[in-house]
Amino acid sequence: MTKRNNVYRGYPIKKFGRGKKVIFQAIINEVEWSTMIESDLKKAIDAWIDEGKEPPTRARKLCNQQS
After folding, report:
1. Would you say 37 and 20 are in contact if contact means Cβ atoms under 8 Å apart?
2. Residues in Cβ contact with 49 at an 8 Å cutoff, skipping those fewer than 6 apart
3. Source organism's superkingdom (predicted)?
4. What is the residue extent of each domain of the chain?
5. Is the Cβ–Cβ distance between 25 and 14 less than 8 Å?
6. Which long-range contacts (CB under 8 A, 24 or more apart) does 61-64 make?
7. For residues 39 and 30, is the Cβ–Cβ distance under 8 A?
């Protein structure tokens, strides 16, 4: 269940879950990234905008794998 959406530097950040089981998600460069700490996701967005680098490994890339 999506709790809220906020926008950081033009990228919408979605929050899923509640309490200790929360995940923050954003789409950076057409790829979904998620982390359990919102500030890590914001650092990933900053790195992408300011330096053009892929987000750090703490923000994990989500891959849609079909079985």
Report:
1. no
2. 9
3. Bacteria
4. 2-61
5. yes
6. 61/31, 61/32, 61/33, 62/25, 62/31, 62/32, 62/33, 62/34
7. no
The answer to whether the CB of 20 falls within 8 A of the CB of 26 is no
Q: Tell me the per-residue pLDDT of 9-37, one tens digit each, with 9 for 90 and over.
A: 888 999 888 888 888 888 887 888 888 88
In this prediction the pTM is 0.67
Here the tokens at position 30 are 């057409």
Write phi, then psi, for 7 (nearest 5 degrees): -115, 130
